[in-house]
Amino acid sequence: DPTLYLFTSLTAGSSHIVTATSRIETILKANRIPFTYIDTATNDLAKKLFQRRAAGKKLPLLVKEGYVLGGITEIEEWNEYEELHENIG
């Protein structure tokens, strides 16, 4: 599945997650990169994948083909150095 997923938790009540999710969304849209939201609070399969593969990283995260690509820190850095398309594939 080549779809790019934005894993987040909109029901977590954490303003950090909401702010970071919004920032990632803005960056992806500005770069015309299509993505699909996945709310780990309501999607058990996504929640299990996140718990297995996140390696201590916090939501929101970009996931593609079952692999965690990065979170807000990586995405902002890739965007700043124009490496977004290269790192997302």
Automatic annotation (TrEMBL):
It comes from Saccharata proteae CBS 121410. SUPFAM superfamilies: Thioredoxin-like. InterPro entries: Thioredoxin-like_sf (IPR036249). This is Glutaredoxin domain-containing protein.
